[in-house]
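PROTEIN DESIGN WORKSHEET
SECTION A - STRUCTURE
LENGTH: 148
TOKENS:
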């Protein structure tokens, strides 16, 4: 998975790997990584004051249309992880790169990316440009970094 060099916004959050997320070997089951992507994305959306309830109030759903995950090192029960995300695209879709790190050692564990598109709820039509309210929210975020 090729990484983009420019991020419009970055965010970081930490989580403890819970017992219900691991298999019999105490290794996090591969399918649960998606939950941590969603937790990190929701934390970011809360920080920019544009969470899913606001998206719905604005008349849009934001389904994930693409998901990529590369597992580098296993993640274990009770391990504290840091999920760093970077917004790669926000004007035509919401594309985010994620990196999971061991919170104590800084060792890279996993990389991932998601792409979400705005779909107008009333018409069920996919939008080719994200809503103006979304663009305004991210552009007003204190960590917003426009492309030069």
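SECTION B - SEQUENCE
RESIDUE ASSIGNMENT:
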């Amino acid at each position: 998975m090729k990484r983009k060099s420019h991020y419009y916004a970055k965010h970081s959050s930490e989580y403890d790997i819970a017992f219900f997320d691991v298999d019999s070997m105490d290794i996090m089951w591969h399918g649960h990584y998606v939950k941590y992507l969603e937790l990190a994305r929701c934390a970011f959306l809360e920080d920019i004051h544009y969470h899913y309830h606001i998206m719905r109030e604005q008349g849009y759903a934001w389904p994930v249309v693409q998901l990529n995950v590369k597992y580098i090192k296993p993640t274990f029960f009770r391990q504290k992880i840091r999920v760093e995300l970077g917004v790669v695209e926000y004007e035509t879709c919401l594309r985010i790169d994620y990196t999971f790190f061991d919170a104590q050692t800084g060792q890279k564990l996993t990389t991932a990316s998601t792409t979400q598109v705005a779909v107008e709820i009333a018409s069920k039509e996919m939008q080719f440009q994200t809503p103006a309210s979304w663009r305004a929210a991210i552009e007003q975020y204190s960590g917003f970094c426009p492309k030069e």
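SECTION C - NOTES
The first strand starts at residue 9 and ends at 16.
Helices lie at 33-47, 52-57, 132-139.
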